[in-house]
Amino acid sequence: MKIRLLAIICLIACFAPANAQRRLHFDLDYHYFLGLTHRMLGMTLNRGDFDMDAHSARFAVRYDISQRVSAGVGIGIDAYESYNAAPVYATCRYRFLDKQPLYAFTNLGYSIGGSGAGGPFRRGAMFDVGVGYPLMLTKNFGFNFQIGYNLSHCSNFDYSYTVAMPDYVMIGYDTTKSIRHSLSFGVGIVF
Q1: Is the model's pTM score more than 0.85?
Q2: Dihedral sign computed on CA atoms, order 100, 106, 111, 112
Q3: CB burial class (10 A; 0-12, 13-18, 19+) of residue 152?
Q4: I want to staple 153 with a disulfide (CB 3.0 to 4.6 A). Which of 1, 80, 125, 140 is the partner?
């Protein structure tokens, strides 16, 4: 499915008019998520409770609607400390000034994947908001730097529990919903 989507996007880019190619942008980004809190089972865990680092690779296609606004769609793979997510999302950027490349961005989407325990990806909503700065080396190629906030909702987070009784110990496994808040630091290429 992802390969088909990428192939369709590449075909559209190849056959788009030259005018549209200047307005069509491809972003390939890496993000480091510095976890702040993780809420599940009515408890809020913080960085001192367990490792909350995460990594993300994302690919987006954007179209410049105007000089200040661009919008598009993207896909990615997020690797959190205890689960993985594959978000499909809409992205929007707003440049504050025409002559300055600094922009505000937001991503809103849903992570696709198997619903059962043990599946490779977990389902749930995702949301990013922040600011970015592209450092363009040529008219159509450059580096992109972002800092922001990331929210990840996992609808089937796996966990284990232990119940110790005087005569026996019971270990169980179950799933629950979780919400994770992170600071996001990103670097990528724009072409």
Answers
A1: no
A2: negative
A3: buried
A4: 125
62-97 burial, b if ≥16 CB within 10 A, otherwise e? bebeeeeebebbbbbbbebebbbbbbbbebbbebee
**Sole residue written with tokens 């999302």:** 89
| Torsion angles phi and psi, residue 2, rounded to 5 | -70, -35
For the stretch 150-179, pLDDT in tens is 999 887 666 666 777 777 777 776 667 888
Residue 136 tokens read as 């363009």
The residue type of 174 is: D
Taking residue 120's Cβ as centre, other Cβ atoms within 10 Å add up to 10
Please tell me the predicted confidence (pLDDT) of residue 17: 47
Closest C-alpha among 118, 184, 177, 189 to residue 151: 184
CA 32/CA 35 separation, integer angstroms: 9
Residue indicated by tokens 């043990």: 118
Query: Are the CB atoms for 152 and 182 separated by under 8 Å?
Result: yes
* Adjacent-strand bridge partners of 149: 129, 183
